[in-house]
Design goal:
Layout (H helix, E strand, L loop, with lengths): L1 E5 L4 H12 L3 E6 L14 E4 L5 H8 L4 E4 L11 H22 L3 E5 L27 H19 L4 E6 L1 E3 L8 H10 L5 E2 L3 E6 H14 L5 E4 L2 E4 H12 L6 E2 L2 H18 L7 H7 L8 H6 L7 H14 L11
Parallel strand pairs: 1-2, 1-4, 2-3, 4-5, 5-6, 6-10, 7-9, 8-12
Antiparallel strand pairs: 9-11
Length: 334
């Protein structure tokens, strides 16, 4: 079995590549000409150069592949040109699906996100069936993922063998950038988190997310969505678990929402002037005002999605960041 993975050099994608190799697949990875290949270095994969916006490169990449895992996306809450987010995430998805259809791929797994699902109301836990309201989605990234998912659902409706997966907030190895959730862990380890903004999130081991992709290809129903999630926790609880795992103290100061939102606008303005990337953006702070809780029951029942305890998932993430130079000497966990 030959599988193509777009976005295979990224956090989730690199873990999907490893899950496919463990399953015995021959793996082809689509990578841009300027992509950092360190996440898949020394893995027995075939790297082909291309771009989600280049239809010809996609046709060449997918040729002779039975399965396609479209993990690639522009994941950013801070871009100077929002149109680029839609070009990569929405039109890029359309391009991959068209190329896979032409090649006769037997199964296509599209990596969406819980960002494409409904924005939870107060005390609400979202499922795949909770009605989404696009107008409530914050920022270009979330809206682009919603629109990309609609493209995938339309393709399934016309007969393409498409299954959609919606990862929540993964943590674990190969988070090289790192992601916003990974950044929280790194800042905690380096004692750069004196206070926190209370919110809620669904934290899942990235290894479970990767295995969920393989299971979706094998067992998922065409045209269905599956939340690849773990445990719903508050930010305070997340930090308490990190304290238990590392022996480092958890921050006790909770910052009110409105002052930090004002500060995020000021930070964003300063970064536009200096050309740097803000550590917090108005979009991310506005999203934190909602507890982003999700229910992965469907994926667990239909796919057999693994359920790694959050303590173990965070321990693996801590160990990986410490082993790969993200943690400064004095702050290293026990």
């Amino acid at each position: 079995m030959t599988s193509l993975v777009t976005g295979g050099t990224g956090f989730i994608g690199a873990n999907v590549v490893r899950a496919l190799l463990r399953a015995g697949d021959e793996v082809r990875v689509l990578a841009r000409s300027d992509s950092d290949l360190s996440n898949i270095a020394e893995l027995p994969v075939d790297v082909v150069r291309g771009d989600l916006r280049d239809r010809d490169s996609l046709r060449a990449a997918v040729r002779s592949c039975e399965r396609v895992f479209h993990v690639g996306a522009l994941y950013s809450f801070w871009v100077r040109d929002p149109d680029l987010v839609y070009e990569v995430n929405v039109e890029g998805t359309r391009n991959v699906l068209d190329a896979a259809e032409e090649a006769g791929a037997r199964r296509i797994v599209v990596t969406s996100s819980v960002a494409a699902l409904a924005v939870p109301g107060k005390g609400e836990v979202v499922t795949e069936e909770t009605p989404a309201t696009p107008s409530r989605m914050v920022g270009a990234y979330k809206r682009s993922k919603y629109l990309a998912e609609q493209v995938a659902l339309e393709a399934a409706g016309r007969g393409l063998p498409v299954v959609i997966v919606n990862p929540s907030f993964p943590v674990g190895p190969w988070d090289v950038k790192p992601t916003p959730t990974g950044r929280v862990i790194v800042d905690f380890l380096n004692r750069r988190l004196p206070a926190y903004v209370e919110t809620g999130m669904n934290v899942v081991a990235v290894e479970d997310v990767a295995e969920g992709h393989v299971l979706a290809a094998e067992r998922g129903r065409i045209g269905e969505r599956y939340i690849l999630g773990g445990e719903n926790v508050t930010m305070r609880r997340l930090l308490e678990i990190l304290a238990q795992v590392t022996g480092l103290p958890a921050p006790r100061v909770r910052v009110p929402y409105r002052p930090i939102l004002v500060l995020s606008y000021a930070n964003a303005l300063g970064c536009r002037v200096t050309g740097t990337t803000p550590r917090m953006t108005p979009d991310t702070i506005r999203m934190s005002h909602h507890a982003m809780y999700y229910d992965p029951t469907k994926a667990r029942c239909e796919l057999g999605l693994p359920s790694t305890p959050i303590e173990e998932a965070l321990r693996r993430a801590v160990d990986w960041f410490a082993a790969h130079g993200y943690v400064k000497g004095a702050a290293r966990p026990r």
